[in-house]
Hints:
The complex is a heterodimer of chains A (422) and B (257). With 422 residues, chain A is an alpha/beta fold. Chain A has two domains: 37-227, 3-Layer(aba) Sandwich (Rossmann fold), CATH 3.40.50; 235-377, Jelly Rolls, CATH 2.60.120. Chain A is 34% helix and 29% strand. Chain A starts with a helix and ends with a helix. Chain B contains two helices and twelve strands. Chain B has helices at residues 2-23, 229-251, and strands at 46-47, 54-59, 64-70, 77-83, 94-102, 107-108, 110-112, 118-119, 125-132, 149-158, 167-175, 201-202. In chain B, the strands form two sheets. In chain B, strands 1, 3, 5, 6, 8 and 10 form a six-stranded mixed sheet that branches. In chain B, strands 2-11-4-9-7 form a five-stranded antiparallel sheet, with no helix packed on it. In chain B, strand 5 and strand 6 (107-108) form a beta hairpin. Chain B is flat and about 90 Å long. Chains A and B meet through helix 1, helix 7, strand 6, helix 8 and strand 8 of A and helix 1, strand 2, strand 10, strand 12 and helix 2 of B.
Amino acid sequence: MIHRKLSFVAAIGLIAASALLGAAPAHADETETEPPVVELVLDVSGSMKAADIDGETRMVVAKRAFNDVVDALPETTQLGIRVLGATYGGKNKKLGCQDTQQIVKVGQVNRVAAKNAIATLQPTGFTPIGLALRSAAKDLEGAGAARRIVLITDGEDTCTPPDPCDVARQLAAQGTDLVVDTLGLAPDEKTRKQLVCVAQATGGTYASAQSEEELTDRIKQLVDRAAKPVPVTPAVVAGAKDCATAPLLDAGVYTDRELIGEHRFYRVAVAGDQELRASVSIALDRPLNRDYGILLKAATVDGRELVRGVDAGSGRSDVLSAGLRWSLTRDDEEEEEDGTAKKSTDTVCLVVSNSFASATAARAPGMPVELSIDVVAASQAPDAPGLGRGWLLLFVLALAGLVAGVLAGWLTRWWVAKWGVN
Amino acid sequence: MRSFLVTAGAAAFVALAAAPALADPSDGPTPIKGVNTVGTSFLTAVPIAPEQPVEVDAVTGDYLYWSFPAEAGQRPELNIAVTLPPAADRTGSQSWTVEVFDGLRRRQACVAGEQSPVVAATATEVRLGCRLRQIRSWAEPWDGDPLPGTYFIKVSTELPEKDLGLPVGVTLDLTAPTGDTGADQGELSAPLFPNNKPGKVLTSTPAPAAEEKDESFGLSMDWLPDFSSRWVWTVGGGVLAAITGLIGFSWTRKRRV
């Protein structure tokens, strides 16, 4: 008897364990993508000598913060470190503006080597932020799915042109998924404006640090956020100017660029018993006029509108998005009722347009568009609810019962009176 | 033989009970692990579950994204508290906004809660809230009603440019009480979960898959609504009608003296 009980318990345990183990990988492989990579770009220009953070120089504080961050790094993080203005101490601007080196190669971090490299840094030269960003983007090329640069500086670019903000926008437009987070060390107004612009241009974030603690916390935050894998790398697609030449898209996530005021067309094949689901987001990567809107329209190939998704906004925002669902209606289906309706495949045009406006930066590259498309089985339109609820329902049913009872009683009395039998 | 059947039955029950517990981290008696990360876009939104404590550090000006799953009949409600940076560092008033989007990134209305409060430069904390409409089990494709699937929470700030980048602490509390679950008859064929796979540009229209018709007449119980309070009301109404029917019948009889 005891044996039987034991085997019973063991069987339950085994099956529960297999259920646990069997279910876990199914969740995991949905998000299995390449590990993201991060490069920290540190300004080591002459201005870092200023001793205005908790009575110590910016350089000393930045070095300590970097050491803390390197110590706290998760094992799997792919990290590189690049410096700018670290070697050339002369006055020649042309030479000084070429001054940027990668001191830690992108990869799993060797803590000791990274700390040694940081320890030797001396605040020296110019601040070529634009060039450093370009070089950092090159360092990260081909590595990982999502690429993130964390730019830490205390002063504005002293090597413009090119404006680092334009450089950032160009870099973001060249590849996919390059994000620049910026961190200002006790920044002045001009530095702040430049860093905010760089962050906005790539969908990154800006933070300012007035103390060592703030600096360390923020770098850790950014590295943590960057270390999380992105669920999908969107495919690059170029929308067309009209529906006839538009690319035919399968279900999935896409990225594109759209100029202010431009219309972009895409096509999706939707079978008669399927439902189209589409959503689009446009990132606000530049200074824009206060009010704006986005329109996602589904239309037939000949231009008849089927359904639209809209959203509008005003003020500060990172992204504006709209979505829609569409499936063939019963009426449409009956029109072509000759047995083919269920099997026929419609081509639906998706048109993405916007009503952004900008006084300064309306030119190419366009604004980043993220388009996500799904085609699922269409849902059946239901009948009215079969069941009721509420006091009114009870009252009506009770009243109907009462009336029916009285009628039945009268009918019985009449029956008995007429026929004399019960 | 009998004990085998019992074992198999019990095992099947355990397996069934284990499966949903895995799917939804909010189930089960174990205390829920808190979340202290946040996403910065729709794609990187950090998934959370109702009742899961969320606490993150961020800076003013960050756009914070989380996502949560919701089912038909639920009325998700979220409350957010933000600890603001020291008043000495700030120069003007700030406007904080919480927005909720469905799985198709369509804006969802908040029916209650302070969605977009403005705080003075001297305030130390700001509280935001949003309660969604009850999630419907079905809606027409042209409709923007809340449907089962993923929901995205986005927190953003409007503030003087000088006040950007200062540290804040954000806590979020999400609840999803269940309301009248039988209000809608229909069912969505697939919840609005984002289909996160890389896209592919096709060269020709895919041929529609020739699917076999598996129409099982008679045996299907799909037409029968799931159990909800409506069953109780309707059956109760029937019983009440029967009783009042008897009362009505008795009124027409002669009273015995």
